[in-house]
Amino acid sequence: MSELPPPPRPTASSPAPQISAPRSRKSLATLPHTPRTLSSSQASSSMRAPSSPRSSSSRSVLHSPTTYVGPSKSLINTRVPSSPDTSLRRTVSIAAFPQPPKAGSRPSTASSISGIQGLRPSGSLKERKSSRLSTSTISSYRTSKTTSLIHENGDLKSILSCEIRDMDASPPQSRSSSAQGSYSTSATTYEDGDDAAGISKSTLKSKESRDTTKGNVIVSVRVRPDVGGVEAIKTSEWTVDGRRAIISFNGKEGGDYLYDNVFSANENNAKVYDAAAKRLVRRVMEGYHGTVFAYGMTGTGKTFSMQGTATSPGVIPLAITDIFSFIRETPHREFLLRVSYLEIYNERINDLLSASVSGAPSTVQQEEIKLREDSKRGVYATPLKEEIVQSPTQLLRVIARGDHARRTGSTQFNARSSRSHAVVQIVVESRERAPAGVSQDRRSGLLPGGVRVSTLSLIDLAGSERAADDKERRTEGAHINKSLLTLGTIISKLSESKEKASGATDKEGKHLPYRDSKLTRLLQPALSGNSLVSILCTIQLASPTRTHAGETLNTLKFAARAKNSIVSHAKRAEEAMGSGGTDTGSRVLLERYRLEIQALRNQLECQTKAQVEKEPKFEEQQLEKEAHARHEEQMLEMQLARTALKERIEHLNRLILCSKSTGVNNHGGLPSLGRLSRQSAFDAGTRSLRSSVSQSTLSAYGQPSNRPMSLISVNSYDPAVSARLASSLPHEDDEENIGEFADGKASTQQQIAALQADLNDKNRYISTLERRLLQARRSSHSRISIGMKSSSPNAELTDTMALLRERDMEINELRQQLDDKDRMLTALRSAARHRDLAHIAIDACGPGMKETLSHRHSLGDSDYALTYTPDNNFSPRFEGTPEGKRKSMDEMSRILDEMIQDRVESGQLIKGSRGSVRVVTGSRRASESIPGIASLTTSNAD
Ligand SMILES: Nc1ncnc2c1ncn2[C@@H]1O[C@H](COP(=O)(O)OP(=O)(O)OP(=O)(O)O)[C@@H](O)[C@H]1O
């Protein structure tokens, strides 16, 4: 205890809200200053609490408190709220109190309730006396005095005396900084005072009905450390006894003030939270509404207590931590948290979460926020931004954002003074989880239970202050003081109306000026009893520049009045069923979200079903697409094949034209080269039946006469061979064009006609090929279509491959034939050249020789012969003797005969009925396996 000189009386000029002074306070017997020790029976805790106006018989006559300071003889002079007629002053010798046991091991006795009974305004003196008699020690009062918010079972039983095993807060080590920057508290190990009540219930019974609901309001006072530890201005006026939760003032209007908690200057935020707010927060999580607010003059530590610092978090961050701890510990329920943050600045409500990010007041004019009231929600601000939060960190961040936007300014006593009342509201929605195996109602998506909605309001009020020099500060101060004054008035009137009504009814608040300020209007539900309330009043006893006795007394009186006048009927919020209809229902986000989730799930299910149904169609479409792509590919391949064929034809044509352009015919050596080339072209693939190997090939041998050149004439030396050849060669009648170039000297017109015929043939061939391609494409397409329906893509592929193979074979065959013809052509050219040379030589030998040779030649007794060389070329060989020549010719005839025979055997040539031979095209053979092509060939042949 410290003794301080009497503080100066509060000046009349002080604008601090003057909470109506306890008019009921009456001077009791002034106790002698002489210390005396009272026996236990005499000991009384003459604590004074503000009494109702009616109970005071003497107003503003406050006795100087008698403070006895001494280790064994000090007295606590406390005043007890007096009954209308009496006020009681009791002096208790501290020496008589045994030292309280250490935290956690304090004795709990039935008699421990007696001390606090004396504090109850409703308790009569008689009762208090009798209970005092049963009080053995003040320590037992101390331990039993603490009230609890709500009985564990949720009944509205106020257990007036219950021991809290660890009233001195959870040990500091139980609070640690978590990874997320939040703090873990002792929430998980904290044992509610309710459960730990160490008192005899029978003792309580008689008090229960009377004191019902009183325990739902906790009033605590926190003393801020003196600034700079200045001792000079300290007086002996104040005595703070944190252990007993008593503050004594020895000056004028002095007395002892007892609260639920008194925190001395050296106690930290954690302890303040544990004692003043922790249980309330738990109750909110269980479904009660709860309000914690800090009240006090400027610079006394309201914001410090509510927000705290990084190293010493205050009520708000610790509550947040506990909220999430509770959620973790309650797996059988699910929760949804939403938070809003507003300030009341100059009687205007600002949404701190809608403010600009910079924290400066939003440049965009906010929609005016109004207070509304409805039966379910009570008084609420709208429109207000609410944010749904899922983690402590997120919640802390949201609140930090709001803090940043809050108005602060420098005042005389606080460099960063809050210039507005700030209200953090955390709405807790919770509902029972469906037990494992129990499915929720599929149709409605509802669980058996409804949703419970409760609200935790954490309010940091602006501090009352003297008039400031600055105009802005003055305006702010006026609004702040006005609202705080209204609050004080309401508290005072609540107490008054209670006394008027003898604590019975009509505390509806109709006549209470809640509407006089936005703050009181917003606090209406809490003040009128719908909420659990914890009031934390902050005071500062001295500073280097001033003392705060007047303001401090006002705060203490406010706190005492609040304790005695606010009666909370807080009930656990009912579980709202359904999601629509009522306003409450529509507010319950948890329900709405659940229904939305259910609806989305249903939607998803439907979509999945539809997709499953559509899948085969989709697969079909995919197959069709693939088939189409394959078809395209095949078309492309066929196009390429067609181009290749055309190129081939062109190439062959070029070859033929080249042969003609050599003008071999003009030399008369190989008069029917045109015919031969025509033959070559045919052999290379022409399907014209006009082509005939015999006439073209064999007539190429230089027959000087005009008669058609044939192998008959060539082989005329050997009648047998000639006859054979003649029979094998086409008859003149057989071939419409036989003899066309038979003289080997076809006229230009004939050549042109031959070329024209060649051209026609080729064009026909091209168109035939085109038709075949077209047909092949159609058949391929139809095969694909069929394949799409019945066969696998592999079958189509096989077909296509087979087709391509056929084409390849055909091309190869054509190439082979072309090679043969090339060789034959080369041989014939060579033979023609030699023949010409032979003629020249004869000419050079003179007319006689020429005649002879000419004659011999005409007889077939040629001086040269075609020999078949190993490289499969025919080469003329000049035989010196007629015998040799004849042999050579025979040999040549034989070779040609064999060749023709070979071809006939191999099916490349067909022997006509009259010995003629015809070329069987390769495509005809190849086409045997392709019906379309076979028919084409046939038609062509026709
Ligand atoms: N219990 C305490 N321990 C240490 N410092 C404290 C305590 N209480 C308050 N302070 C310090 O005192 C100063 C003022 O405190 P704070 O801003 O919390 O006062 P306030 O009551 O909120 O004032 P206002 O009403 O003007 O906003 C701050 O610097 C704060 O750190």
From TrEMBL:
Residues 1-144, 167-212, 687-707, 922-942 are annotated as: Disordered. Residues 216-565 form the Kinesin motor domain. ATP binds at residues 296-303. InterPro entries: Kinesin-like_fam, Kinesin_motor_CS, Kinesin_motor_dom, Kinesin_motor_dom_sf, P-loop_NTPase. GO terms for molecular function: ATP binding; microtubule binding; microtubule motor activity. SMART domains: KISc. Residues 34-67, 132-144, 169-190, 687-699 have a biased composition (Low complexity). The keyword Cytoplasm applies. The keyword Cell division applies. One of its GO terms (cellular component) is microtubule. Residues 590-648, 804-831 form a coiled coil. GO terms for biological process: cell division; microtubule-based movement. PANTHER family: CENTROMERE PROTEIN E (PTHR47968), CENTROMERE-ASSOCIATED PROTEIN E (PTHR47968:SF75). Required for assembly of the mitotic spindle. This is Kinesin-like protein. It comes from Aspergillus japonicus CBS 114.51.
